[in-house]
């Protein structure tokens, strides 16, 4: 009895040691976190694009937020903004367009993590110029970018420049060995952060009267700023959709961490979140917010994403062979492909 | 290193979660320290549409006073950008937030003091706005006035002397009355007028 207990204890100890060991050596969710990087970069890029015509009015030296108030806010929050460096229009245009290019580079995966860090600095700077424009999505973006810097988020879905690889090869082995544990910590941090977002917002909803009554959606969807004329009515005029949607929202938000903790439920929890946020994007017009949340959900979807990428590869190969122009496509031996996929898409 | 990093992360998220907790005696005591750590790069607020979501149509109107003393009609400086936001579903313009966000900061008073205010609604013990709250409100009103000036460029031939902001809150029909016919002449709208501000000082 005691010996079997001891044996079992030893077994569980060695199992937890192996899992710690694995956590230190195998990078988890590389594909997912690469997707997070690409999509976050795209949302950042669209922040610049969607405000492009109004850029002088919103962010310029004589913008709608007065220059003196801008400087005061920076001082009060004890932070910086590159836009505060000079009142010249040329400097402003330079920053704005460079910021746009940096965001595009992050989306495409050019330049590696140094470019991601620069993008973070530029994005923070433009956010500070007009804080009234910001929402929870922007908040999540500036929290997650430093976490992404820890991860190998350029390993997949990127146009590699080659330079990063060469720099990596020159690094001493000891430093290179820290890569995987840091990566996994970064992924873990994003996972905890997104759970904190959902659970906080879920628990506060539980306390709200309209959410308890099951009518919150009815009210929110009629606020003019968040209404889609002609479409929102289809939801808020339907009692079942209003009550079902309101309760489903709260339940989903509160139980999201449990869904993520159980490996079998994980992709479903993430898919539910993506569906939820895409409908927010459609009905409420909060595209940037919704896609930022979706970007973070991608870290839970490495396996399905991997399957998707493989399918795309196979389709491309078949199309290529049909067209009789196989040359030119990069060919990866099936065995190595499977091996990388099984390791990097785990989690 | 892994364990060390995990411990640091745990600590960080414990603090971040604490900052999101409801107002408890513990939070009242320690929130300043927590804020000192989180400010400004880790600040977060996840009370998205909770606990009580907005449930009305609100915005601002503005009018100007010309140098000859004439006062213009009210300009609707809210609806055009709300329309613009409704017109697109792919990264719509955020201009409408230049009205809604400062309005929110006008109404975002200290939650603890708000409890006191709720208790002593009228008469004795009425709780005034604290200096910090007053400052936030003044700044938001100044921003709205400045914004409004840019939205009515033709008022007073382009050179108004003063500008006044009016905030309106129109309650939307409640769920229980969603099918009730709207009675003519009944418009449950509340307005609040802020002080006239000198245009030259806003520019």
From TrEMBL, chain A:
This is HTTM domain-containing protein. Residues 23-305 form the HTTM-like domain. It comes from Streptomyces ficellus. The chain crosses the membrane at residues 28-49, 90-111, 185-204, 240-262, 268-301. Its main location: membrane. It is a multi-pass membrane protein. Keywords: Membrane, Transmembrane, Transmembrane helix. It is found in: Endomembrane system.
């Amino acid at each position: 009895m005691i010996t079997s207990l001891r044996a079992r204890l030893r077994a569980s100890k060695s199992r937890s040691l192996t899992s710690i060991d694995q956590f230190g050596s195998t990078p988890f969710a590389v594909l997912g976190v690469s997707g997070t990087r690409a999509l976050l970069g795209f949302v950042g890029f669209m922040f610049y694009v969607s405000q492009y015509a109004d850029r002088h009015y919103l962010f310029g030296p004589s913008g709608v937020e007065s220059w003196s108030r801008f400087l005061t806010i920076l001082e009060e929050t004890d932070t910086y903004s590159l836009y505060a460096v000079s009142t010249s229009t040329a400097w402003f245009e330079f920053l704005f367009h460079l910021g746009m290019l940096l965001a595009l580079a992050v989306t495409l995966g050019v330049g590696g993590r140094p470019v991601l860090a620069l993008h973070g600095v530029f994005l923070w700077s433009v956010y500070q110029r007009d804080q009234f424009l910001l929402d929870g999505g922007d908040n999540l973006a500036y929290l997650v970018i430093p976490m992404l810097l820890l991860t190998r988020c350029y390993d997949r879905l990127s146009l590699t420049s080659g330079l990063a690889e060469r720099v990596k090869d020159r690094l001493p082995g000891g430093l290179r060995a820290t890569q995987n544990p840091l990566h996994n910590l970064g992924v873990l941090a994003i996972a905890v952060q997104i759970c904190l977002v959902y659970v906080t917002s879920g628990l506060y909803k539980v306390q709200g009267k309209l959410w308890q009554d099951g009518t919150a959606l009815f009210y929110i969807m009629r606020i003019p700023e968040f209404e889609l004329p002609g479409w929102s009515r289809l939801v808020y005029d339907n009692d079942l959709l209003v009550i079902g949607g309101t309760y489903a929202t709260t339940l989903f938000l509160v139980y999201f961490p449990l869904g993520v903790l159980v490996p079998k439920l994980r992709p479903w929890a993430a898919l539910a979140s993506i569906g939820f946020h895409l409908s927010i994007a459609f009905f409420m017009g909060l595209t940037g917010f919704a896609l930022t949340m979706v970007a973070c959900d991608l870290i839970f979807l490495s396996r399905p994403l991997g399957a998707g990428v493989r399918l795309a590869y196979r389709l491309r190969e078949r199309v290529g062979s049909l067209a009789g122009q196989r040359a030119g496509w990069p060919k990866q031996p099936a065995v190595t492909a499977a091996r990388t996929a099984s390791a990097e898409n785990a989690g | 290193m892994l364990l060390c990093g995990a411990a640091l992360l745990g600590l960080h998220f414990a603090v971040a979660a604490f900052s999101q907790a409801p107002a408890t005696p513990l939070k009242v005591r320690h929130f300043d320290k927590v804020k000192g750590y989180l400010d400004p790069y880790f600040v977060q607020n996840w009370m998205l549409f909770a606990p009580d979501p907005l449930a009305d149509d609100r915005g601002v109107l503005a009018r100007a006073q010309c140098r000859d003393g004439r006062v213009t009609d009210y300009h609707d400086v809210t609806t055009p950008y709300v329309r613009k936001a409704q017109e697109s579903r792919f990264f719509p313009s955020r201009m409408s937030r230049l009205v809604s966000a400062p309005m929110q900061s006008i109404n975002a008073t200290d939650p603890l003091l708000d409890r006191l205010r709720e208790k002593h609604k009228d008469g004795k013990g009425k709780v005034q706005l604290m200096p910090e709250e007053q400052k936030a409100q003044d700044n938001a009103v100044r921003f709205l006035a400045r914004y409004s000036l840019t939205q009515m460029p033709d008022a007073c031939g382009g050179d108004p002397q003063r500008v006044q902001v009016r905030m309106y809150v129109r309650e939307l029909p409640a769920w229980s009355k969603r099918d009730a016919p709207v009675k003519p002449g009944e418009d449950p709208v509340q307005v609040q007028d802020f002080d006239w501000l000198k245009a030259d000082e806003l520019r």
